[in-house]
Write a structure and sequence with these properties.
By secondary structure, this protein is α/β, with parallel strands linked by helices. The protein has 2 domains: about 5-290, Rossmann fold (3-Layer(aba) Sandwich), CATH 3.40.50.620; about 310-470, Isoleucyl-tRNA Synthetase, Domain 1. About 50% of the residues lie in helices and about 15% in strands. β14, α11 and β15 (about 290) form a beta-alpha-beta unit. α12 crosses α14 (about 325-335) and α16 (about 390-400) packs antiparallel against α17. The chain is elongated, with a radius of gyration of 25 Å. The relative contact order is 0.11. The mean pLDDT is about 95.
């Protein structure tokens, strides 16, 4: 019976079009999912959309649209990433407006409440609608949220339900001690450990429905709806059919070492808040939280107001005339190799074009043409190939450092290029056919190692190269045409 593995992205908030930040997250999760499948794991890969909360309610009102129609429109764009980015076809796509999710979130609330971790009280707080979270003075600069400095904070003064977050400080620290690699990279783990050590404050988990009705009703209290984060975080288990489908939940969550990708602004929600909620419900913890940095553009954080947001749809469309069927792998290549696995990175359209020209058109694409042109002309297709992925590549994928894995593969590409330049099989084969054929065959074997190592990272490119090698044919046209 195959081992099970679970991986999920966060659920993007559907108040704007998809951008390359989330595209990076979902591509990375797809690489891990594909890699685990190649090792024989049964994989459950989850993504979807977060569709409740005040920010969405306000955005829909501003656009003059019904809220459900508004979220339906954006959810379709995020679901479209599955085809656009050549993601795993068996990916599960959950929406927090799905009926089964709403019922699961209600059950989760009732369970946490039954266990004594929910109570009601009046409170006053500063609230950032952009983050959909409360803010302490230490988190503010000039009384503004650092992530949404263009929005005024709201002063909340109302009766809400609260989660006894403070009850889980020691339990969380004990879990972090037991699993020191729980949050990756390590410096993010240290940040979360210090955050928890500083003490946890109970937080509001409901909103008055009279002020903001767009949410899941609190069980047995129609005057309140669930706080968007308390609702949305339960998607990671509702997608498994919890609590109705215990077999699937046990297979992939309890026994599947669940892995969650998130952005660095989401780290507390995933590695602290969500874990405390699971503890309150007596459910197993996540196993790894993998934290991405931000993608900036031209040295500035991407934002709609600055006009520097990059759309994955635009990038794929831009390279369609040059890369054809491999167009989605152009963006996969760039985001996997030129965006740091854990730190902030900068990205511009010009940078993408430069990387494409140097490393795909003049690099990998040209190498495939050189090797396979010689092989088709001088060799037979009887060479035996190893199906083993390069060990350095495998090790770095297992450690979630996909940029290093890509750099390992481009080292293989550079080494093969250097070997061809040094040995000159294109000349040797004209003076000593057998020696030249042996050189060419070795080059084909090396090219196959590159292709098989790309199988989870650039799947369409990998499949194309493998097919050329097995049929012993040169490409009819370059894999990646040079930019004009």
């Amino acid at each position: 019976m195959p081992k099970s593995f679970y991986i999920t992205t966060t659920l993007p908030y559907v108040n704007s079009d998809p951008h390359v930040g989330f595209a990076t997250e979902i591509i990375r999760a797809d690489v891990i999912a594909r890699h685990k499948k190649s090792l024989g794991f049964e994989v459950f890969f989850n993504t979807g959309t977060d569709e409740h909360g005040q920010k969405l309610y306000e955005s829909a009102e501003k656009a003059g649209k019904d809220v459900q129609d508004y979220v339906d429109e954006y959810a379709a764009k995020f679901k479209g990433l599955i085809e656009l980015l050549n993601l795993s076809k068996d990916i599960h796509f959950i929406r927090t407006t799905d009926k089964n999710h709403e019922e699961s979130a209600k059950h989760f609330w009732e369970l946490v409440n039954k266990n004594g971790y929910i109570y009601k009280k009046n409170y006053k707080t500063k609230y950032c609608v952009g983050c959909e979270s409360e803010k302490t003075d230490s988190e503010l600069v000039n009384d503004k949220c650092v992530l949404h400095p263009d929005r005024d904070l709201e002063m909340r003064d109302e009766e809400n339900y609260f989660f006894k977050f403070s009850a889980f400080q020691e339990k969380l620290l004990k879990y972090y001690e037991e699993y020191p690699d729980f949050v990756i990279p390590n410096f993010r783990m240290n940040e979360m450990r210090e955050f928890v050590k500083g003490g946890l404050e109970d937080f509001s988990i409901s909103r008055l429905s009279s002020k903001m009705s767009w949410g899941i009703p609190v069980p047995n209290d129609s005057l309140h709806v669930m706080y968007v984060w308390f609702d949305a975080l339960t998607n990671y288990i509702s997608t498994l059919g919890w609590p109705e489908d215990n077999d699937t939940f046990d297979k992939f969550w309890t026994n599947g070492t669940p892995v969650q990708y998130c952005g660095k602004d989401n780290t507390r929600f995933q590695s602290v808040m969500w874990q405390a909620m699971l503890m309150a419900a007596n459910l197993p913890q996540s196993r790894h939280i993998i934290v991405n940095g931000f993608i900036n553009s031209g040295g500035q954080k991407m934002s709609k107001s600055l006009g520097n947001v990059i759309s994955p749809y635009d990038i794929v469309s831009m390279f369609e005339q040059f890369a054809g069927e491999l167009k989605n792998d152009v963006l996969r290549y760039y985001l996997l190799r030129h965006v740091n696995s854990f730190e902030d990175s900068d990205m511009t359209i010009e940078g993408i074009k430069e990387a494409y020209q140097a490393n795909l058109a003049n690099g990998l694409g040209n190498l495939v043409s050189r090797v396979m042109t010689l092989s088709e002309k001088y060799c037979e297709s009887s060479t035996q190939f190893s199906e083993n992925i390069n060990k350095k590549v495998t090790d770095n994928i297992e450690n979630f450092d996909l940029q290093k894995a890509m750099n390992n593969i481009w080292d293989l590409i550079s080494n093969l290029d250097a070997t061809i330049q040094a040995e000159k099989p294109f000349s040797v084969v004209k003076t000593d056919l057998e020696v030249g054929k042996q050189m060419i065959s070795r080059n084909v074997v090396s090219l196959y190692e590159i292709a098989i190592s790309l199988v989870s990272l650039m799947p369409q490119t990998s499949a194309t190269i493998i097919e050329l090698i097995k049929s012993n044919k040169k490409p009819d046209t370059p894999l990646f045409n040079r930019l004009t």
